[in-house]
Design goal:
Elements: E1 2-5, H1 11-15, H2 20-29, E2 31-36, E3 41-46, H3 50-64, H4 69-72, E4 82-87, H5 95-106, H6 111-120, E5 123-127, E6 130-135, H7 137-151, H8 156-177
Antiparallel strand pairs: 1-3, 2-3, 4-6, 5-6
Helix pairs in contact: 2-3, 6-8, 7-8
Length: 185
């Protein structure tokens, strides 16, 4: 059994209307959730497939970091799906600096965050003092690098160029992977 602590305002999202979300997570990840809505503590117990059960706490953690339940459940799509968190607060000197850096990650009208999603295929959420990412290993790595570039003060244009370059690399690798053996290249 693992214990995960999530923010008070995310408990309702985890439970869902009439407990619907909680039951879906329990069924899909083959776990049992014991939610303490007083302190935000969630006990996650594996009741079925132990490999699926390992993703249970990650799903709860992702919802706690601001992901919609359907996005968090993407972690079950395959064994390679990852959930990663970038701590904005750790990269900030004070509250004002944190607000500014969070703003840099979000971008004007959310455009920077959207571009991170569009060009990598990962889901990206900025909630509280963290940036959360759900995706394949390479997608998560690219988003983390882009976020760290922005937190270190890199110009948005340079980060967008980096994202586009990585997008093209991933697309090219995908094409290589899908070529038929023995066919013309």
């Amino acid at each position: 059994m693992q214990h995960v602590k999530i923010p008070q305002d995310r408990i309702g999202v985890l439970i869902g209307e009439g407990g619907e979300t909680m039951r879906e997570i329990e069924a899909e990840a083959e776990v049992r959730l014991d939610i303490d809505s007083e302190n935000g503590s969630v006990a996650v117990e594996t009741v079925g497939d132990p490999v699926l059960g390992l993703k249970g706490p990650e799903i709860v953690r992702a919802i706690g970091r601001g992901f919609a339940p359907e996005d968090a459940l993407r972690l079950l799509e395959d064994d390679m799906m990852l959930f990663d968190v970038v701590d904005i607060d750790a990269a900030s000197r004070n509250k004002t600096d944190m607000k500014r850096k969070k703003g840099r990650l979000i971008g004007e009208s959310g455009r920077t965050r959207e571009l991170m999603e569009e060009l990598t295929g990962a889901d990206v959420v900025i909630y509280g003092s963290t940036l959360g990412v759900i995706g394949g290993p390479q997608e998560v790595d690219v988003v983390r690098s882009a976020a760290e570039m922005l937190l270190d003060g890199a110009p948005h244009g340079a980060v967008y160029s980096f994202l586009e370059e990585k997008h093209n690399e991933m697309k090219h690798k995908g094409m290589e992977y899908h070529r038929f053996p023995g066919g013309q290249s």
